[in-house]
Design goal:
This protein has 16 helices and 13 strands. By secondary structure, it is α/β, with parallel strands linked by helices. An eight-stranded parallel β-barrel has the order 1-2-3-4-5-6-7-8, surrounded by nine helices. A five-stranded mixed sheet has the order 9-13-12-11-10, covered by helices on one side. Strand 5, helix 6 and strand 6 form a beta-alpha-beta unit.
């Protein structure tokens, strides 16, 4: 078996940054250099030309994501210096055939990306019959955010076709060996290289993980499953989370009782009237260990939370409370160090009206 190929995906908007990262990646031992779709859209075929000019001994890949006029786009990329052109598997058969014919004419090869294809194994067999050279199993960034990874599909397709299979989508030093063992002979890595503070060293680690078929632990460039969300949220700030949620979902005017509080947990939501602490107390019974109680008290200024509720929450292992309203017993809660976030801190409590 040939050594697996490590391909760096340069999905950047600025060509000067892409060229610098490519140089550092080559120093680390990367095999193929990809002008990513974002780079091609931002800088055009000049990105392919300059990559080929600066790295004449490396295979240059153009991720065109072509869905139409395959012959024209492959000709354009091939003349610019691309030796591998990536088109989409959702393209019409004639588009794929045109791309293959152009690649044969201009001395390049065709990789088909099955991103978005419903039956990926079936389509892989079909495009293989049309004469493409490689299949790419690609889990896009939006899919990665939902915890998807390419490994199972790589395993299925590598058994179904005879041409080489590439794997792409959130791969890092912990997972590249799994991709190779699943059947991938081309390992495409983007963010784990381009976002690294030391590109050369990161590429060396990736190569080692690929060649030695071992997982090398990393705290960076990871995608997490739903079961790991608690650990993920502990690692990041509320500002990070706001950015990831497109600046939506933030509560305004809510303050921590003490600076530095951080809590994470499933939200147990409560709606009550100003000063009515019956439902907040009931929520303590409903909540489980690690949950966060979130109370909508209509921004009222009579407390619906205090010392006794905090003690009860500590006993149950509740992570904390957020109140769009008021809390009291500040000194006592500070002593027990229970995370309370509220709009107001007041001395007066309401009544349990239920």
């Amino acid at each position: 078996m040939k050594k697996p190929i490590l391909q760096v995906a340069l999905d950047l908007m600025n060509l000067h940054r892409a060229l610098r990262i490519a140089k550092e990646a080559v120093s680390g031992g990367v095999d193929w250099i990809e002008a990513g779709t974002l780079l091609i859209k931002s800088e055009g075929m000049e990105s392919v030309r300059l990559l080929k000019r600066q790295f004449p001994d490396k295979t240059i890949v153009a991720d065109l994501k072509t869905a139409d006029v395959g012959g024209v786009e492959v000709e354009m990329a091939s003349k610019a210096g691309a030796q591998v052109c990536i088109i989409l598997g959702i393209s019409d058969d004639e588009t794929v055939s045109e791309a293959v014919r152009a690649a044969r004419k201009y001395g390049s090869k065709i990789m088909v990306d099955v991103l978005g294809v419903e039956d990926k194994v079936k389509r892989a067999r079909e495009v293989e019959a049309l004469g493409v050279d490689y299949i790419c199993v690609h889990v896009g960034i939006d899919q990665q955010m939902k915890g998807e990874n390419p490994l199972m599909t790589v395993k299925q397709i590598s058994k179904a076709v005879k041409i080489p299979v590439a794997a792409a989508g959130g791969l890092n030093t912990e997972t590249v060996a799994d991709a190779v063992m699943a059947g991938a002979s081309i390992i495409i890595v983007g963010g784990a290289i381009t976002k690294s503070p030391n590109v050369t060293e990161e590429v060396k680690k990736l190569k080692r993980a690929i060649l030695e078929l071992k997982s090398i632990p990393t705290d960076l460039y990871k995608k997490y499953s739903n079961e790991e969300l608690y650990q993920v949220f502990l690692k990041v700030s509320t500002a990070n989370i706001s950015d990831a949620m497109h600046r939506k979902g933030a509560m305004v005017g809510i303050k921590p009782l003490k600076s530095g509080y951080k809590m994470v947990g499933r939200a147990i939501t409560v709606r009550t009237c100003n000063g009515d602490w019956a439902k907040p107390v009931e929520a303590i019974d409903v909540a489980k260990k690690g949950d966060v109680i979130v109370i909508d008290a209509s921004s009222g200024k009579s407390a619906v939370w205090g010392e006794l509720a905090s003690w009860s929450s500590i006993k149950k292992g509740i992570s904390g409370v957020v109140i769009d309203g008021a809390a009291r017993d500040v000194e006592d809660i500070l002593k027990m160090d229970f995370p309370v976030f509220a709009r107001y801190f007041v001395p007066n409590a309401g009544e349990p009206k239920g």
